[in-house]
Amino acid sequence: MQHRRFTGTFGIAASGALMAALAVGLQHLGNPANMGLCVACFERDIAGALGLHRTEIVQYLRPEIPALLLGSFIASLSFGEFKPRAGSSPLTRFILGMCAMIGALVFLGCPWRALLRLAGGDLNAVTGLAGLVTGIGVGTLFFRKGYSLGRNTPQRAGAGLVMPVLMLGTLALLLIFPQIAGEGKSGVLFYSVKGPGSMHAPLLYSLGGGLAVGFLAQRSRFCTMGAFRDLLMFRHAHLLIGVASFVAAAFALNLMLGKVNVGFAGQPVAHSAHLWNFLGMMTAGWAFALAGGCPGRQIFMAGEGDADAGLFMIGMIVAAAFAHNFGLASSPAGIGAYGDAAVYVCLIVLLGLSLAHVRKAS
Amino acid sequence: MSKKIIDVCGLACPEPLIAFTKAAKTADVTEMEISFDCAAAKDSITRSAAPMGWKIASIVEEHNQTVMNLVKVP
């Protein structure tokens, strides 16, 4: 019954609401508006903190990301679901992670942030979510045709510990080289002194929030991509209850805090290039569908010992660096100089990977 | 009237559910044994079985995998 407590209807709804409360809480404590939790934005900030790109306004080693993975690691260990595994088309998953990040940075957010933006009244999120569902729908077409990334194989415990240990190392860097007020660098880490990267909740709250969300999501299987995929493929609304609960709770809390601003213009860290909001998230949604999980879910699976999901996550971080170095990422002023070309290239890559992994039924 | 044995170990979500759904809709399959090691698959197959007219006869967890036996409800 311990198991069903989280995976039943009440469990997924409560998990969604609690995760939203933690996300809005982190916004209230200092994270950027409508960005209490955003896997794409936070991995992009981590890429900046490590100097993989040098966009000065988005550099902070966001502790929420390692905390999310470690929360899932603790949950999976506690409930006998830590299963080290690897070898299911790892290079393809790395490239899927890259395409997902490029799409997400054209929109300016992962699916979680799209939901948080919606809950804050940002109507640009509607076109983004429409794109996300469309991309997931395209992905399901290939699953119906026999798309598969193949079987993983069980690994020794050490292989499953690589990502959790990497996350501990990342957190150690943050403790060894803490932010110095007004300085853009501390030891090996880069920090933002202005812009979204300079806005963050206190370390312990970020860590606690990330750990709690990681734990809850691992137990409840919360997945924004899975919610729409299951509805489209199997007519299952279970995971969608979690997503709906997440939006409803975030909206209610934003109302209480006076943080709802309905409209398209002047939204925080957002632009109103509707076509590109749609196509950016369509790209991301297609990539998430092909990889079997939204970026949050990839982190949680990596915490469960799935090295392939860890590679997807690293692909996202690498792509964030490319996105800012090559002018692919958007800003509130609009899409990047090469953002449109990047989306076209990613869509072609996704089509190629989709076709390449369609297998004859056995 | 036949039993279908499906091994989807190593395959991730949603493939175990796709395999279950496909077999569950096959007219002459009345029993099924499905082996998987994806934690989410246990939840999704459990949720899908009854609405599709199937009953879970047994669930055995062994060697990091789950073996689920199902029968079609007449």
How would you describe the overall organization of this protein?
Helices cover 64% and strands 2% of the residues of chain A. Chain A is built from 15 helices and four strands. A two-stranded antiparallel sheet of chain A has the order 1-2. In chain A, a hairpin with a 2-residue loop joins strand 3 and strand 4 (189-190). Chain A is globular. The model of chain A has no long low-confidence stretch (mean pLDDT 96). Chain B has 74 residues and is of the alpha+beta class. Helices cover 28% and strands 42% of the residues of chain B. Chain B contains two helices and four strands, in the order βαβαββ. Chain B has a four-stranded mixed sheet with strand order 1-2-4-3, covered by helices on one side. In chain B, helix 1 links the parallel strand 1 (2-7) and strand 2 (29-36). In chain B, helix 1 packs parallel to helix 2 (39-49). The longest helix of chain B has 11 residues, at 39-49. The model of chain B has no long low-confidence stretch (mean pLDDT 93). Classes of the chains: A mainly alpha (362), B alpha+beta (74).
Total separate domains of chain A: 1
Radius of gyration of chain A: 19 Å
Q: Kindly report the oligomeric state of this protein.
A: heterodimer
- Taking strands numbered 1, 2, ... along the chain, how are they ordered across the largest sheet of chain A? 1-2
Structural class of chain A: mainly alpha
Strand order of the largest sheet of chain B: 1-2-4-3
Into which percentage range does the β-strand content of chain A fall? under 5%
Topology:
The complex is a heterodimer of chains A (362) and B (74).
Chain A: H1 2-7, H2 9-28, H3 39-49, H4 64-78, E1 85-86, H5 90-107, H6 111-119, H7 124-144, E2 153-154, H8 157-176, E3 185-186, E4 189-190, H9 203-220, H10 224-234, H11 238-257, H12 274-291, H13 295-303, H14 307-325, H15 339-356
Helix pairs in contact in A: 2-9, 2-11, 3-14, 4-8, 4-9, 4-13, 5-12, 5-14, 5-15, 6-7, 6-11, 7-10, 7-12, 10-11, 12-15, 13-14
Chain B: E1 2-7, H1 15-24, E2 29-36, H2 39-49, E3 54-62, E4 65-72
